[in-house]
């Protein structure tokens, strides 16, 4: 398990009361998770440290900018935030809206299209959409 204060320090973030509360919900038990702002907000409502939804959004953005979590966009209107920081693909269940890790050792990307002139590859996101049969 990781201490929330140490986790914030890794990203160079000041351990404010709200950041500590949200960091504890994200990484306090040592389990990698995928959250959206609304689900993290709901979880925070169950604690003594209540924060506004705007604070949750702002804090998640700060955590991303600090390199502590990564954003996974599943469509233009929905983002998840992943505490697992290595490159790995995801499964997205369209019926439940659940995002889960997929095995990275089973994914092969043989070739990418040629990048436009003046561009550098930042990262490749793989979200595999699933429908129950």
TrEMBL record:
Enumerate the UniProt keywords alphabetically: Cytoplasm, DNA-binding, Iron, Metal-binding, Repressor, Transcription, Transcription regulation, Zinc
Subcellular compartments: Cytoplasm
As one GO molecular function, the record gives: transcription cis-regulatory region binding
The domain of life is Bacteria
So which cofactors does this thing need?
A: Mn(2+); Fe(2+)
Subunit structure, briefly? Homodimer.
Q: What is this protein called?
A: Ferric uptake regulation protein
Provide the species name. Rhodobacter ferrooxidans
